[in-house]
Design goal:
Blueprint (H helix, E strand, L loop, with lengths): L1 H19 L3 H7 L3 H22 L2 H4 L4 H10 L3 H11 L2 H15 L5 H53 L6 H84 L1
Helix pairs in contact: 3-8, 3-9, 5-9, 6-7, 7-8, 7-9, 8-9
Length: 255
């Protein structure tokens, strides 16, 4: 009987502790209206993470073996096929090469310095597109603690308002505790949202920096190939011109 009595007492203690516990939904409700703002920011951050996972994958910036393929098109002087390749590829590198080739096709007399300026401008634009997408995570990581701090201030205002009433007994005491809990919950909520956002931002930033470096190396290689090709065509053109001049001189001497 004594053992049964002890088991009954232990069950009552556990039931009482479970009744005093709070679920996640109850903690969310006790955080006040600003918790809904943090919830909205968390949904935006989650969508931003999925977008960044898709847009910062390696194939979206520089697909495998495309540099060698682009080089082979340039050496064959198949610029029409190269434009079609870049259009179908859709990577950041392919879009940059597409702009370079289009500029060269529309400006036959443009020198390589002008081509390099166009390539640099387009590569910078593509890098900004990648960076702009991860800035959402950085912005949310900065805004979330501020929202939590605002909730803290509002909760402390509620607490001091109750203290100003001059009655700390009974219900007033419970209301003061409610204001303090609201302040702490919103602060914790803001930090819980901000920390993963900043960690995700750091991961995506390092990934993008690596991709941008690889793309810069690839574009530099393609510009070098274009320069060699342009120099070769220039030398061939000069040799043809010189041969034509010699032929005309020989014909004039015969006459």
């Amino acid at each position: 009987m004594h053992a049964i009595f002890l088991l009954a007492q232990e069950g009552q203690v556990k039931t009482s502790a479970a009744a005093q516990g709070f679920s996640v939904f109850e903690i969310f409700e006790k955080g006040g209206p600003l918790m809904y703002g943090l919830l909205g920011l968390s949904f935006i951050a989650l969508m931003a993470v999925f977008v960044c996972l898709w847009t910062t994958r390696s194939t979206a910036v520089l697909t495998r073996d495309i540099v060698l393929t682009v080089e082979s098109y340039i050496r064959r002087k198949d610029y029409g096929g190269l434009l079609e390749l870049c259009k179908n590829d859709g990577s950041s590198f392919a879009r940059t090469v597409h702009v370079i080739v289009m500029f060269m096709q529309r400006n036959k007399r443009a020198n390589m310095d002008a081509v390099r300026e166009v390539a640099s401008a387009e590569a910078t634009r593509q890098a900004n597109i990648l960076t702009r997408q991860i800035n959402w995570l950085s912005d949310i990581g900065s805004i979330a603690p501020m929202v939590g701090l605002l909730g803290t201030v509002l909760g402390m205002m509620t607490t001091f308002w109750e203290m100003a009433q001059g009655n700390f007994e009974g219900v007033k005491q419970m209301q003061m505790a409610s204001g303090i809990s609201e302040a702490m919950i919103t602060t914790a909520g803001g930090l819980v949202l901000a920390i993963p956002c900043m960690l995700s931002y750091a991961v995506f930033r390092n990934r993008i920096q690596k991709h941008i470096t690889d793309m810069e190396v690839a574009i530099t290689h393609i510009l070098s190939v274009l320069t060699v090709q342009a120099d070769r065509e220039y030398r061939l053109g000069n040799s043809v011109t010189q041969k034509g001049n010699r032929t005309e001189l020989m014909e004039d001497d015969d006459m």
